[in-house]
Design a protein that fits this description.
Elements (H helix, E strand, L loop, with lengths): L2 H23 L12 H12 L5 H18 L9 H7 L9 H20 L5 H8 L4
Helix pairs in contact: 5-6
Length: 134
Amino acid sequence: MINDDYDKAYFDFHMRLLSTFVNHIKEQPPFYLEDCDQDDRDFMLELSELPNSGGTDLLMQGQQLFCKIVAAYPHLMPLVPRDLLWFFGGDCLHYMPDEEIRIFQELDELRHNAKETNQPFSYESARLSSMGLH
């Protein structure tokens, strides 16, 4: 595996989670309502376009949007993949318990160790295993 492949696989995994999340919340109030407020439509548009941001803008905008979910749309929090809070980091980490943070730190260490030693690594498999889902 080429070093960039480790980062690309990690990034792609999170963008798939983000895309799935966006599709799920489009079916949740207030976003599916015909009389949806303009602020809600703007939020959904920003969230939908988030993967196109790229670079540090992606992380900063992601932090802002996910913190806004906590503040303005708390009913959506059960739908938020915890991985996205870790991925965007910053203030999003305030919404994660220490045990979750520890798990994601360990996953990052495993990924970085595999990258350093050029060992095969599947983030998704390691994630499932570390969370007791595999």
